[in-house]
Design a protein that fits this description.
Strand order of the largest sheet: 1-9-8-5-4-2-3
Family: Belongs to the DegT/DnrJ/EryC1 family.
Protein name: dTDP-4-amino-4,6-dideoxygalactose transaminase
CATH architecture of the largest domain: 3-Layer(aba) Sandwich
Number of domains: 3
InterPro entries: DegT/StrS_aminotransferase, PyrdxlP-dep_Trfase, PyrdxlP-dep_Trfase_major, PyrdxlP-dep_Trfase_small
Order of helices and strands: EHEHEHEHEEEEEHHHEHEHEH
Structural class: alpha/beta
Largest sheet: 7 strands, mixed
Organism: Myxococcus fulvus
Shape: globular
GO molecular function, one term: transaminase activity
CATH class of the largest domain: Alpha Beta
Distance between the termini: 43 Å
């Protein structure tokens, strides 16, 4: 794999790419949720599972206690399904304030909602105990934490339901999952497959990213040519491409299921190897970046499969621009509150939204690539500090 193109520019996508052999690889037995779960339904989006959970568990017309640190699309799905969100405090290290959760439980509360951020486990056992004390449902949102465990306990298995997103961690065109835990069985309809043209479009995009990742400048040129032709074809044929990674919930897509191709690719993945490579890459960045930016987490708990390296910066827009200019597809992580949440009531979360940048550490990135990534990130952070010093 070539990390650096002949022109000297990196290509580091934010998500893993699809290698051609994955389209024909044999399936492996699923060793982690949701693939190992006996009661699971797959969807196009994880947000569809949030919507169905509200309806399935009768949470509509009730209140759900949710973290003040949220994406927003999960809140939109919950509201659309008829529930009312209330919010609890999350600290500066993504730590749930359990005392605040307990204080905010009222007779109207029907469920507790716990988000596991970027693979790092939240206090699932403590939230389970609190939910049981008050007769509440516990929802575990593992959309950012596929393949992660808290020690030996897989995330998504402690709550009444676990909700997962596949395409953030695996090179698949779409996919979310709803896992129902415990002895109670629900009759869940199997959602219909999404439009094949949309799945094809996402699959080709992931293959082209892999081509650029491996092929340097030549791969980039071919990817650009194919994308130009492809966009024209899609437009001319009026093909509806159901985009993933969008910012808002859309009711018209709530019944879309996961494509068979997604399941085939997902089941062919070596999950243990993915966890190992992501942990290796995270540890490398932690060692190389801790002296230029105090890490959000100074360690990687056993079982954690990091979705990305959370980089703490002061001038987020400046750092993002520098990284993207060098070919690193860094992401502005969760910068906005949902309108239902009072931003002024949660200053620690407001600061998180101003300061966290996603640095890729996924399984496609070799140690050589990670060395280049670390070097570029160090330069960007140092340049940011120099700019701030001159301005001060």
């Amino acid at each position: 794999m070539e990390a650096m193109t002949p022109s000297g520019r990196l290509f580091v996508p934010s998500l893993p790419t699809l290698w051609p052999h994955m389209l024909v690889s044999k399936p492996r037995p699923g060793s982690l949720p949701p693939f190992s779960s006996p009661n699971v339904r797959y969807f196009y989006f994880a947000r569809n599972a949030v919507w169905l959970t509200v309806k399935m568990l009768g949470l509509d017309n009730g209140e759900v206690l949710m973290p003040s640190y949220h994406h927003g699309v999960e809140v939109e799905a919950l509201v659309d399904a008829g529930a009312t969100p209330r919010f609890y405090r999350v600290g500066s290290r993504w730590d749930v304030d359990l005392e605040d959760v307990a204080r905010r439980i009222t007779p109207k509360t029907k469920a507790l909602y716990l988000t596991h951020y970027a693979g790092f486990p939240g206090p699932a056992a403590e939230m389970r105990k609190l939910a049981d004390q008050h007769g509440l449902v516990l929802i575990e949102d593992c959309a950012l934490s596929l393949l992660s465990s808290d020690g030996a306990v897989p995330l998504g298995t402690t709550g009444d339901v676990g909700i997962f997103c596949l395409y953030k961690t695996l090179p698949v065109p779409n996919g979310g999952a709803l896992v129902v835990n415990g002895p109670r069985s629900y009759s869940l309809p199997e959602p219909p497959a999404p439009p094949s043209a949309s799945t094809f479009s996402h699959t080709v995009s992931a293959l082209l990213q892999n081509l650029e990742l491996r092929g340097g400048a030549v791969g980039r040129g071919l990817r650009g040519l194919v994308r130009t032709v492809g966009h024209g074809t899609v437009k001319a044929a009026s093909i509806e491409r159901v985009a993933t990674g969008t910012q808002h919930f859309d009711r018209k897509h709530v019944d879309l299921g996961m494509s068979p191709l997604t399941k085939r690719i997902a089941l062919a993945q070596d999950l243990e190897s993915i966890v190992e490579k992501r942990r290796r890459n995270y540890f490398y960045l932690l060692g190389r970046l801790r002296d230029v930016s105090t890490p959000l987490f100074n360690q990687l708990p056993a079982g954690t499969c990091p979705l990305f390296y959370p980089m703490v910066v002061q001038e987020k827009a400046e750092v993002l621009a520098r990284l993207r200019a060098k070919g690193i597809d860094a992401i502005d992580f969760w910068k906005r509150f949902h309108p239902a949440c009072d931003a002024g009531a949660f200053p620690e979360v407001a600061q998180l939204r101003r300061s966290i940048v996603e640095i890729p550490c996924h399984q496609d990135l070799s140690p050589e690539v990670m060395a280049d990534v670390a070097s570029v990130v160090r330069d960007a952070v140092r340049a940011e500090k120099q700019t701030k010093k001159r301005a001060g």
